[in-house]
Amino acid sequence: MTECLFTLHQIKGYIASLYLVEYQNKILLLDGGARYDAVRIEEYMSREMLRPAEDLRLVLVTHMHPDHAGGAPLLRRRFRLPIAAHVEIDQWYRGFRGATQHLIDTLLGHYSARQQFGKLERAWYPRRLQPDYLLDDGQALPGFPDWRAYAAPGHTLYDMVFYHPEEELLYVGDLVIKPGDKIVLPFPTLFPELMTATLKRMALLPVKKILLAHGGAIEIADGHSFFSELLPLVGKYGQPVFKIMEPLCSLAPDVRHYKNSCR
Fold this sequence. Notes:
Elements: E1 7-12, E2 17-22, E3 27-30, H1 37-49, E4 56-61, H2 66-69, H3 72-79, E5 83-86, H4 95-117, E6 133-135, E7 140-141, E8 144-151, E9 160-164, E10 169-173, H5 192-202, E11 209-212, E12 216-219, H6 223-228, H7 240-245, H8 253-261
Parallel strand pairs: 3-4, 4-5, 5-6, 10-11
Antiparallel strand pairs: 1-2, 2-3, 7-8, 8-9, 9-10, 11-12
């Protein structure tokens, strides 16, 4: 492997970890975080990196949950920062059922933050992201051609992960999470069959380091073993309460449409 082309920075956000990829003349943000994570990012760049927020060139959004999409619109408004996301990401919260799901997911985000960190802050955000760049599966990132976007459905229908082949580095968003010392799959996993296919696909990538939105950065021996060992967890509930809560997470219109199409 050649000398690393960038410096990676990790920031503790409201709910999730945030990652800045610093190049000499530009910076990439892996996920937009929650609403006021936009302020955390600006303050971190000024204090720790000694760089203005205007050096940000692109913010990625893996999926539409509040701790991943909430900060992106505010960053765009403040710094004219373009957003890149799945080509169909704005389908997730469409219509009345989608609006209801958006409200529930925002409240669940507050619940998660309160349970984990004992804090609450404003987290409301638009349910339509309106990305400046619509990403297809396998596409190089605009302005960052050394990175690739891959569709990774399972948690939602429009999740993406972002991969740097040269560094064998993978940002997985919520594809995999690490509460405490355990590596598990996210709740909810709304599309088990698609999650299985995604894990099998990720197992084919040469990966040495994984960036988790929930659990930080981890080094692994090889991607094939790491992702293959997660396959038996698909469809399992990490905690009994998750089975009770799952109907609250299944209101988005694409959940119902997908399940009906599989019958």
